[in-house]
Specification:
mainly alpha; about 270 residues; 10 helices; about 35% helix; two-stranded antiparallel ribbon
């Protein structure tokens, strides 16, 4: 997701920082991550820590998240599944213009957004061990991607929506048949394994998944978990509309984000 530096490719030193801890499930049919191929030493350990954060954010980032979910809920297989919130190739797309922020952002800004919106929490400091580790992990998955090149189309899931308005009533029926077994009839998730889709412990109204186009694509290609890709675009559209018709936390944009000061010797 980020491309800073003079090299045309992701710097090897950064790429090396991306190791994962093997926490959580393994990638779904992807060769993007193999813990056995991580660099040795501190860089490999950082990459592993970055993967651990993505796979089990609730445990690794206590105090930074309020939603009862981990990054892996929206980035399946730790961001290794094509059309499943893939991280593969996004490192080279940064810095980039951000319409919401009205400024050019770096990868750390985008990760901070995820903590603020999707996790309904607060971001770690940009120079923290955790933030560097997540950047390192994403860089590792994107190694070899030319700087400035957008993510490959076969990794993305957002597509044009159907021309009709969504049918939330039909979406409710489909949700009961396809989704409630995991996410609950009231959308409250299950045992910290399946994330809540609405309510006080879900992502807030500013999250990317709170937009019907993004949720539609994600649902189409990744849900239900035991039969991904079995829903048509139209059905996924209706399910997304039903899910997003429910209340969720409000994003409080006036809250100040404060990170610790560092002595000059830290740098």
């Amino acid at each position: 997701m980020d491309s800073i530096g003079c090299s045309r490719f992701v710097p090897l030193a950064i790429a090396a920082v991306l190791a994962t801890s093997g926490c959580g499930s393994e990638p779904h049919g992807s060769s993007a991550y193999d813990a056995r191929k991580l660099p040795s030493g501190a860089v490999g350990q950082s990459i592993a820590y970055g993967r651990a954060i993505v796979m089990d954010t609730q445990t690794t980032m206590k105090g930074y998240v309020r939603a009862k979910m981990s990054c892996e809920a929206c980035h399946i297989g730790g961001g290794t599944r094509p059309k499943g919130g893939s991280f593969v190739g996004i490192y080279g797309a940064f810095p980039q213009w951000n319409r919401r922020a009205h400024r050019v952002i770096a990868l750390q800004d985008r990760i901070a957004e995820c903590f603020l919106y999707s996790m309904n929490g607060r971001p770690p400091a940009y120079d923290s061990k955790a933030m560097i580790a997540v950047v390192a992990y994403i860089a590792w998955l994107s190694r070899g991607t030319p700087a400035g090149k957008p993510q490959a189309a076969n990794q993305r899931y957002v597509e044009p929506l159907p021309s009709r308005s969504p049918d939330a009533a039909h979406g409710s029926d489909l949700y009961g048949q396809k989704c409630a077994a995991c996410h609950g009839s009231k959308g409250n998730g299950q045992a910290d394994v399946f994330p809540p889709l609405w309510g006080a412990h879900s992502f807030n109204a500013g999250a990317g998944m709170a937009h019907v186009d993004r949720m539609t694509g994600f649902v189409r290609y990744n849900m239900p978990q035991n039969a991904p890709g079995s829903l048509s675009l139209e059905d996924a559209y209706d399910v997304a509309a039903f899910v997003l018709s429910h209340p969720r936390p409000h994003f409080h944009k006036s809250v100040l984000v404060v990170t610790p000061s560092r002595p000059a010797s830290y740098f």
